[in-house]
Specification:
There is one protein chain. A 7-stranded mixed sheet has the order 8-5-1-2-3-12-11. The protein folds into 2 domains: 25-62 and 84-113; 125-276, Immunoglobulin-like (Sandwich), CATH 2.60.40.420. The chain is elongated. The chain is an alpha+beta fold and 303 residues long. It has helices at residues 2-19, 32-65, 84-113, 225-238, 244-250, 283-302; strands at residues 125-132, 135-140, 145-148, 150-154, 159-165, 170-173, 181-183, 189-193, 199-205, 217-223, 240-241, 259-262. Strand 6 and strand 7 form a beta hairpin.
Length: 303
């Protein structure tokens, strides 16, 4: 009786706690990329639940069936040879599970890395997202606008975020729109997404990057295409231009609120891609190669 009351009390406690929890954002997708991720998570949870239930059920059955019993002192258990069918099942099922989950993972990875199905004929809108300690800088080359700690997206249009960092590695993540992707210094990574439902979505840096990491957040707001165009017109007519001096101030470590500017920092501080990538040294490489050639000619003439 006491055990039954304890179990009921525990069930009520867990139910009460879970009732006060907010829904997991990653399982409440508002775009095709996030939906693919959520489906994979649910499939993985279901697969693991089936495995756990089967294994625990078999454990209970085996423990009960082959439990210790009172036998005579001279009792010797019978010798049992291995059963090839049982051994094939024990080895084969885990292999099949791994193969199944591997196929799902590879397929879903390709889906979330590319432009979502149904939007292939639309030209993605490019937005540069640069992190600094501890802020997010969003640059719109097409609209000639820059925002700080918030980003506005048009619904039902593919968005290509180009990510990089002005410091330690960060992780760009909007759980309801897409999975996370690292932003690093001296290179640009890309992530595609589409917001199909208007609304405000929480975004953040999901990779520890120092003492201000906890507040390294931003808001992604999805607007209808008409509302997005009105927002662009309003910013172009009211916001102040972004200067190089002002941008250097924004890069200083610390937390700031939301800000909006006309123009982008890409004009005077380009993203690390193409000729500006960290691994590309441009004229320096040519100079080194030219010096090596000249030294080789001098050595040849001395001989």
């Amino acid at each position: 009786m006491k055990l039954k009351l304890a179990f009921i009390s525990f069930a009520i406690l867990i139910t009460t706690i879970l009732a006060g929890c907010e829904p997991l954002l990653v399982l409440d997708p508002k775009g095709p990329q996030a939906e693919t991720t959520a489906n994979v998570i649910w499939l993985s949870i279901f697969t693991m639940a089936v495995i756990v239930i089967v294994v625990i059920s078999m454990l209970v059955f085996i423990v009960y069936k082959y439990r210790a019993s009172k036998q005579k002192e001279d009792y010797e258990p019978p010798h049992i040879e291995g059963n090839p069918i049982v051994e094939s099942i024990i080895i084969g099922i885990p292999v099949l599970i791994v193969i199944f989950l591997s196929i799902v993972s590879v397929k879903s990875t390709y889906e979330v890395e590319n432009i979502p199905e149904g939007y292939e004929n639309q030209e993605p809108m490019v937005i540069y997202a640069a992190s600094s300690n501890w802020k997010w800088h969003f640059s719109y080359p097409e609209q000639d606008i820059e925002t700080l700690n918030y980003v506005i997206l048009p619904t039902n249009r593919p968005i290509e975020f180009r990510l990089y960092s002005y410091g330690p590695i960060t992780s760009f993540w909007i759980p309801q729109l897409a999975g996370q992707k690292y932003a690093m210094a001296d290179m640009v990574t890309k992530i595609n997404m589409v917001a199909e439902v208007p609304g405000d979505y929480a975004g953040r840096n999901a990779n520890f990057s120092g003492k201000g990491f906890a507040e390294n957040t931003f808001t992604a707001t999805a607007l209808s295409p008409d509302e997005f165009d009105k927002w662009v017109e309003e910013i172009q007519s009211t916001a102040k231009p972004l200067t190089e001096e002002k941008y250097e101030e924004l890069l200083e470590p610390g937390h700031l609120g939301q800000m909006t500017f006309t123009g982008t920092h890409l004009e005077f501080k380009p993203a690390p891609e193409g000729e500006n990538a960290g691994h590309h040294h441009g004229d320096a490489d040519e100079e080194i190669e030219r010096n090596d050639q000249e030294e080789g000619l001098e050595d040849h003439s001395n001989h």
